[in-house]
Specification:
Blueprint (H helix, E strand, L loop, with lengths): L6 H23 L2 E6 L1 H9 L20 H6 L2 E9 L9 H18 L4 E3 L3 H10 L2 E8 L8 H9 L2 E4 L14 H4 L21 E3 L3 H5 L6 H15 L4 E3 L19 H10 L4 H22 L36 H17 L1
Parallel strand pairs: 1-2, 2-4, 3-4, 4-5, 6-7
Helix pairs in contact: 1-10, 2-4, 9-10
Length: 351
């Protein structure tokens, strides 16, 4: 009787180790594809995008959720890096700031070619898996980054962007943000305007921000797994993905403090009797399936959309109107030119 008091705790520890070992075995062939990481934003805030600053060395970078050793420990095989610019850049320098963040992502691949491989499609992700590198893709966070321009959207695509979130925490002229539902912001487009209507994908990329996980400042890994369980129950295991939002949030669940902890989440799913195939789906296979379907459905032979957003839907204090019907031509009268220059100076002062 006395010899048995330690038996069941020991069994529990051994079982936990077994799930962790199985998780690592699975992740060696099916590493994580994470849909959202804000390390480029941290590189802007901490080093003003100067990646050759010795303090910005991604091998030894401290006080962030992400660095190269943590990515390796977390079996992260592909990452959509977020090209994020805050809402206060809207109608100002949002496009410029977004281009700079895309540039940072490209330079990460150039400075650390042994670790990062910049890719733009599912084939590139699989190549990075084979080479043991982190496939690096671009996701742009917030529709304000395209300044309501289909031309800018296409240009960002050519620079490697492979997703654009409709809004961040501000309305755009063509889409309402989540704060409308809370009453903090007023609806502008009643969801999406005609300019903003489009189809969406078929994955739920689970965010790890504690407030979203538990509606409180504190959360834990088990509660994140509860969210995955719920999505599986409602939409099926094939609809589950991961978008941790590391380095973009201030609070993370205990047990998921940085990108190195992904094996612990995979182990928890195995403990909850998710099959190995289902866990592989969460880690990478679900996203690859959707990505490949999008690639097959895409038609680059179709004529691009050309109709611009109506000028009246844009804030015009610092905006020219070339191309719109009735807009002034380039050949201005001297008095008009002086007034235009005065307006430009006023706009620059506001930036």
């Amino acid at each position: 009787m006395w010899a048995s008091w330690w038996f069941w705790p020991l069994v529990a520890v051994c079982t936990a180790d077994q799930f962790r070992d199985t998780a690592e075995r699975i992740m060696q062939s099916t590493p994580v594809i994470d849909g959202h990481n804000d390390l480029p934003w941290q590189l802007l805030k901490l080093f003003n995008n100067q990646l050759q600053d010795p303090r910005a060395n991604l091998t030894s970078l401290a006080h962030t959720h992400t660095n190269i050793p943590k990515l390796r420990a977390g079996f992260v095989g592909a990452q959509f890096w977020s090209a994020y610019t805050p809402c206060d850049t809207q109608n100002k320098d949002a496009v410029k700031r977004t281009l700079e963040q895309i540039d940072v992502i490209h330079r990460m691949c150039w400075l650390y070619p042994e670790t990062f491989l910049c890719v733009t499609n599912s084939t590139g992700i699989r190549q990075a898996f084979r080479e043991g590198k982190v496939a690096s893709l671009v996701g742009v966070e917030g529709g304000h980054s395209i300044d309501s321009s289909l031309g800018v959207l296409r240009a960002l695509y050519h620079l490697g962007m492979r997703y654009l979130t409709l809004t961040h925490s501000c309305n755009t002229p063509w889409a309402d943000n989540w704060l409308v539902d809370t009453g903090v912001d007023e609806a502008r487009s009643q969801g999406l305007s005609l300019f903003g209507q489009k189809q969406t994908g078929s994955l739920v990329m689970v965010n790890f921000y504690s407030d979203y996980v538990s509606c409180r400042a504190e959360a834990n890994l088990s509660q994140v797994a509860d969210h995955l369980d719920h999505i599986k129950k409602v939409a099926g295991a094939g609809a589950v993905g991961l978008g941790g939002d590391y380095d973009g949030v201030s609070r993370l669940p205990s047990g998921l403090k940085d990108v190195s902890k992904y094996p612990d989440l995979a182990a928890e799913l195995l403990r909850r009797q998710w099959t190995e195939a289902e866990v592989k789906g969460v880690l990478a296979d679900n996203l690859l399936r959707v990505f490949e379907a999008v690639e097959q459905a895409s038609s680059h032979t179709q004529a691009p959309g050309e109709e611009p957003i109506p000028l009246g839907q844009l804030e015009a204090s610092c905006r020219t109107s070339y191309g719109y019907s009735g807009a002034p031509s380039l050949h201005l009268q001297p008095g008009t030119l002086l007034a235009s220059l005065a307006l430009l100076v006023l706009c620059l002062c506001r930036l």
